[in-house]
Design a protein that fits this description.
single chain; alpha/beta; Rossmann fold; 2 domains; four-stranded antiparallel β-sheet; 33% helix
Amino acid sequence: MKDNALIVNSLTKKYHDFVLDGVSFSVPLGTIVGLIGENGAGKSTTINAILGLIKKDSGTISIMGKQNQEIDNAVRNQIGVVFDGSNFPEGLSPKKLNNVFKNIYSTWDENGYFTLLKKLTLPAEKKVKEFSKGMKMKLSIAVALSHQSKLLILDEATSGLDPVARDDILDMFLDFVQDESNSILVSSHITSDLEKVADYIVFIHNGKVVFSKSKDELRYKYGIIKCGAAQFEAIDKPDIITYRKQDYEWQVLVNDKDSAKKKYPKAVIDPATIDEIMLLYVKGETK
């Protein structure tokens, strides 16, 4: 397994109207990797291929040191999965679900499960169909954490949660990876959550990986030059990753804001959020 819980290499899946094209990235042990991209970019296709829910056309996937064909129940027991939406029988309560999961997972931790239900203020006797969307999401996370998972794969895991509950869940994720043998891959539209907890960001656009970088590099090195037409024309082409014209202002994405400040002292250069970086890559142009 060496230093990675998950390695995706040249993953390709072709549909008649979409191609997941040579996607490659890794999830190092003890880290949280955020998977971002607009709707239809290929995030869910990537996750489904990793989990074996769809058949890939080519490429390799290694989970906990095992290649696709070697992934057995022992490995599957170590993967906690949360999708955007409940996959539990609606007529059962969390208490009754405990009996179901005891028979599914040889590693099921009953005491840990009920402790998490209390921590997340989830009623053990209430039927799942009476839960709100946020409560169902919290239940999914409680289940994912209760069978000695080493790798969590989460699709929009904070969707539908209020800010307080989201903050609690993010703290749980950070606690989980304090054990450096644990790792998380999480896709999310809420990039502010990823800015709080992710170590790395993988950005998929039109079925391809645009970048896979550390969050700190994106947040602390990247910047946006905001300027008029004359200043824009004076910017050297190699310094521009992408640019966008907004009314009378030009927004230019650069990968080293400190260097840009020295080179263009009269320009306004702001730090870039992950949202802004993604938006400029998707809607911007190259010079």
